[in-house]
Amino acid sequence: MDQSRNDVSTPVAGQFALPLRATFGLGDRVRKKSGAAWQGQVVGWYCTKLTPEGYAVESESHPGSVQIYPVGALELVA
Question: Is the dihedral of CA 13, 14, 15, 19 positive or negative?
Fold first, then answer.
């Protein structure tokens, strides 16, 4: 994703939309690249001024537990 732009796809009424050039899609399996282990499924996304592309990841080990991470902290699980 081009970090200098916050392009967002057009949302359906009342729903959020993923960035147009999202690195991960809803349902993708991802894990943290380093630090404390966290692996799970992408269940949402977020953006702030400091984090233009971030993801909410629900743990595979602890269903219902969700953590948010910037795109650079995550990698796709094969």
Answer: positive
- Domain residue ranges of the chain, discontinuous segments joined by +: 1-78
Q: Which of 3, 33, 55, 69 is catalytic?
A: 69
* Burial class, 58, CB count within 10 angstroms (exposed 0-12 / middle 13-18 / buried 19+): middle
CATH code assigned to 1-78: 2.30.30.60
| Known active-site residue 46 | no
Q: What predicted TM-score, i.e. pTM, was given to this entire model?
A: 0.76
- Establish whether 69 is a catalytic residue: yes
* Catalytic residue chosen out of the listed positions 33, 39, 49, 67: 67
For the segment 34-56, what is each residue's pLDDT rounded down to a tens digit? 999 999 999 999 989 999 999 99
User: Is 55 marked active-site?
Assistant: no
